[in-house]
Amino acid sequence: MTQKLLPPTINFAGPFPPLTRRLRLGIVGGGRIAGTQATAAQLSNFWSVVAGALSSDPEQSIARGKQWYLPEERCYPSFSAMAEAEAQRADGVDAVMITTPNHLHYPAAAAFLDAGISVLCDKPLTNEIQEAEALQRLAGQNNAVFGVSYTMSCFPMVRQAREIVARGDIGTLNQIHVEFMQDWMIPPEVHDATHVKWRLDPTKSGTTSCTGDIGTHAAHLASFISDLPLTQIRAEMHVCGAPKPLEDTVFMLTRYADKVPGTLIATRLAAGNRGGLRVRIFGSTGGIEWDLEQAEQLKFNRYGEPDQIISRGHGHGVSPAVERLVRAGRGFPEGIIEAWANLYTEFGLAVAAHKDGVRYPSDWLAFPQIADGVAGVRFIEATVKSHQAGGEWVNI
Asked: Per residue in 248-259, pLDDT tens?
């Protein structure tokens, strides 16, 4: 009899339950972000990294595998070889993280879905909408769990903001503004760095660079908190710094469901901004504001009343559902690693429930899924189309 991963009874309103064993995680792609995500996955205490396709060079894959303390026989020369072999093992991976350049997301994810293995993929999901929709079909056909790393939605204060909006505490929404401003692409010499070259290469990054990489984070975050899908955009893409084949900046007017207007800005040429992701949502009676560089605080106000600052921790305005994602007490800082750990916690619970055949309430886990990834690719496609049409409004 297969061992159940989840306890026999679960209080879905309470803290997340422990598992009977750690889930086995594989890695495709051995770059910097893979290390960040692996650290976060292990912080969740739900995952152990056991296998990887860490390079297309077999010797390099084995060498990198030693740095991950992986056995040589589980350091694979390709993702296809890894998917085939791990699917045959009794102790094969329960899921795989895909952290490759964009153009490899589709073939890698498809290989593991075909092998019946769940996937957590970096964004943007794919470079082409047809590939994104094909992955969505594959995930459904293979009944697999598919997560997408829109990690900003896993900060506790983002979840608190979403609850405030859903309760109607700021009234009827009337505008949404989001921006993601960075400055790391200002020096021209940075373009030659290994982790940057592929981001500016249309054969690997697709039709966009800044839009697909950080613009999609901004778009997802705005829709996640407001619970309103983005329906129309009017975009201009720019190269504001040194010449490059893809944009480093995008400006757009936006429209959401219920005809709610807004703005979206993303750039890598904003001196003095490092993690400059900021979202502001206003309604008929108040507003909320969250800033990645002050991630543990959420500004919440009702018109005519004193502003409130809700801080990450237990109690003091933080809901029980949000407290499940809090790891350290109030006053002890948490950040992006913890947010990624929250993503891997919820993804892990979904994988465990899938393996156990457990159905859970739709509001129990809020990690970004395949539909969010497909929406991100549609957002990119619409942005390019609007820009090429001279900034005309384009439907998503």
From this structure: 999 999 999 999
- Cβ atoms of 56 and 77 within 8 Å: the answer is yes
Write out residues in the chain with pLDDT < 50, as ranges: none
Residue 335 pLDDT:
93
| Confidence (pTM) | 0.96
The CATH architecture of the domain made up of 156-328+375-395 is 2-Layer Sandwich (3.30)
Q: Roughly what angle, to the nearest 10 degrees, separates helices 370-388 and 216-226?
A: 120
CA of 91: how far to CAs of 94, 265, 362, in Å?
9, 45, 30
Q: Which of 358, 325, 355, 360 is nearest to 23 (CA)?
A: 355
- C-alpha span between 219 and 385 (Å, rounded): 16
Rounded distance, CA 75 to CA 60, Å? 9
Q: Where are the domains of the chain?
A: 23-152+344-365, 156-328+375-395
Give the helix ranges, DSSP H, for the chain: 32-43, 58-67, 79-88, 105-114, 129-141, 156-166, 194-197, 202-205, 210, 216-226, 320-323, 336-356, 370-388
Domain 23-152+344-365 has CATH 3.10.20.30: no
Q: How far apart are CA 55 and CA 174, in angstroms?
A: 48
pLDDT score of 294? 95
Bridge pairing between strands 276-283 and 286-291: antiparallel
pLDDT in tens, 161-191: 999 999 999 999 999 999 999 999 999 888 8
